[in-house]
Amino acid sequence: MPCFGRTSDLQLLPILTVFLAAGYISAGVEGFTTSGNSPQQMGQNSNGSASSMDGKQNHTKVPTEGNTSLTVLEDTKAVLPCPPVPLTNVVVTTWKIMFRDKPSCIKAYRRNEKGGGNETTNCTDERITWLYRPEQDCSLQIDPVVITHDGFYRCEVVTPDGNFQHGYHLQVLVAPEVTLFQSENRTVVCKAVAGKPAARLSWTPEGDCVPEHKYWGNGTVTVQSTCHWAESNVSTVSCSVFHEAGNWSLSIELKQGAKTPENLRIICIIFPILFVLVIMGSIWLLKIIGCRKCKMKKTEPTPVEEDEMQPYESYTEKSNPLYDTTERVLKTS
Fold first, then answer.
1. Per-residue model confidence (pLDDT) at position 89
2. Which secondary-structure segment (H or E) carries 31?
3. Are residue 69 and residue 153 in the same domain, yes or no?
4. Is residue 330 one of the residues assigned to a domain?
């Protein structure tokens, strides 16, 4: 019995050894496979982080192009900046100015390696200048702004990293001159003269109104509104003017029975009539005087001067042979 037990134990040892070796080999193969996949995952993670960093860097870059609409009141100062590029990287700065009603012009500045630069321009308007020195600030200033400065202004910057530009649609505002007066009985005129753009008018209270617009060659517009109030209970009216440069409100008291315009009409009618009558009377008087002079010239005889006849008489008496023979015949008879 003891021999038999020892023999069975010895037979089990090789079997256990085989199972242990198979388990170790399988575990090693799985570990190798896992470790072989990990470098690929690391590469994917590194690529993802790199792309995210590039996206962040792209967001911080200066935009290469852009446009802005800018409105400026007349007789004020306007400053137009260039793209926010470090001046140490700027090689050439160029302002291209395209006016609405004038020829275009250019202002440019080129830096050199020594730190200085050369400026070129064909703009003749002395109100358009650099804000400071172009090597310190590339901004453009217009001082003062006038209506002819309407147009498009573009700053172009050349750098080793690329070109950048920014444009400005500049619109000049002109404040209108506002007036309010009564033209005739219960009729009032409100005017907004030479505004840019056109002003808007409104009345309080509302009446029977007729609007008018007059456009001028420089782009300004005169707006007029003539209103009449037939109701006698309206004693005071107000005209409100709305404009991008500001708002105004004027009031006037309606005068009952205002006859000044009627008197002016009477004067305008009578004065031409009197003028025509004076001219006709003057012409008639000149004709009478002229006729009288003509009659006096016809009735007056033309006198014959004796001095003019004396030479003829002396000739007939002294040098006429017919006269001498006649006289001799008379004497002999």
1. 83
2. helix 2-59
3. yes
4. no
- Percentages (nearest 5) of helix, strand, coil residues in the chain: 40, 35, 25
Amino acid at 40: Q
Domain end point (choices 133, 158, 173): 173
Q: What's the domain range around 153?
A: 65-173
CA dist., res. 240 & res. 269, Å (int):
36
Same domain, 191 and 162: no
The whole-number pLDDT of residue 282 equals 87
Predicted local distance difference test score (pLDDT) of residue 130: 94
Which of 253, 273, 293 finishes a domain? 253
| Contacts by residues 236-239 (CB-CB < 8 Å, ≥ 24 positions apart) | 237/188, 237/203, 237/204, 237/205, 237/207, 238/203, 238/204, 239/180, 239/188, 239/190, 239/201, 239/202, 239/203
pLDDT at 70: 95
Please tell me the predicted confidence (pLDDT) of residue 115.
Answer: 67
Grouped pLDDT means (10 residues each) for the chain, 333 residues: 42 46 44 38 40 39 81 96 86 95 94 81 94 89 96 94 94 96 91 96 95 95 95 91 96 72 72 88 83 64 51 50 53 54
Does residue 226 share a domain with residue 199? yes
Contact of 70 with 170, CB cutoff 8 Å: yes
Indicate if 115 and 76 belong to the same structural domain. Answer: yes
CA distance 163 to 93: 10
Is residue 193 one of the residues assigned to a domain?
yes
Residue 304 token pair: 């014959």
Q: What is the CATH number of the domain that holds 158?
A: 2.60.40.10
Does residue 124 share a domain with residue 163? yes
Q: How far apart are CA 259 and CA 139, in angstroms?
A: 60
- Structure confidence by residue, pLDDT tens digits, 239-283: 999 999 999 999 999 986 544 455 666 777 888 898 888 998 888
- Of 138, 175, 177, the closest CA to residue 159 belongs to 138
User: Is 270 inside any structural domain?
Assistant: no
pLDDT given for residue 176 in this prediction: 96
What domain count does the chain have? Answer: 2
The answer to whether residues 109 and 155 touch, using CB atoms and an 8 Å cutoff, is no
